[in-house]
Amino acid sequence: MNAFDLTGRRALVTGGAQGLGEGMAHALAAAGATVVIGDLQTDAAGAVADSLGSGHGAVSLDVTDDESWAAAIAAATEQLGGLDVVVNNAGVEISALMTEISADDVRRQLDVNVLGTALGIKHALRTMRPGGAAGDGGVIINVASVAATIAFPGIAIYSATKSAIDRMTRVAAMEAGKLGYGIRVNSIYPGLVPTEMGAGLASDMAELRLFGSAQEAVEAVVGLTPSGRLGEVADMADAVVFLASDAARFVNGAGLPVDGGMGM
User: Fold this and answer.
1) ∠ Cα 174 177 182 (to 5°)
2) How far apart are CA 125 and CA 46, in angstroms?
């Protein structure tokens, strides 16, 4: 049997209506999993679910809201007939120099990236642990960033939130193990990918006058990357499939860099 085969697994992907999340949903489905997309962009999430084929679905989810999480994960579990994988992918990035940070922008990134992931871990553990609605164990995969491991200008708060995801991942893995939940908790650290968010970040670097142009910012990232290129959505999505699969059955509490060596 192929250790990467996810046939029979049921997965919820947050922020799956576009970008990395959409790619992760497609990769999980291609590996055999049935996927529900959790997103505030319900029309786009539904379109992605439809593109995956029959049996897949979408639920409305505001990751910053506890009650929304409870309702979404219950709906996903009911739709799928269980739950084995939760991917906490939803996130936002707002660039700013340290001298110009806005309290509202800081709170927004903390709410979506830190609180959103924390609530995702909470409800995934409650659902997949013994006695939960889908109490057969499972896998939680959190999406951090190479920004958690390097000092790149203009993204201090974003970097801090992604560092927080790293710490939460490791603590959650330890708690789940100590309490016998049968749930692995890992994270990935994507490098820069030319999605809408990635392109926006490069443009922000030029607007902040940290680089002469968005292209110069991209070239700087490539120059820091031993693999000599930007990441692709498929690079990140395949890493999620690996962590969700039995090939990663003894990988727990880990942060997997998928950054071409940029953060080494």
Assistant:
1) 135
2) 25
Angle between helices 42-52 and 19-30 (to 10 degrees): 30
Residues 25, 145, single domain; the answer is yes
| Terminal C-alpha separation, the chain | 34
| Count of structural domains, the chain | 2
**What is the residue range of 212's domain?**
192-230
Q: In sequence order, what are the residues at sequence separation of 6 or more whose Cβ sits closer than 8 angstroms to the Cβ of residue 14?
A: 21, 38, 39, 61, 63, 86, 87, 88, 89, 90, 116, 120
Active-site positions? 158
pTM for this model (two decimals): 0.96
Q: What are phi and psi of 99, to 5 degrees?
A: -75, -10
The predicted-structure confidence for 176-234, as pLDDT tens digits, reads as follows: 999 999 999 999 999 999 888 899 999 999 999 999 999 999 999 999 999 999 999 99
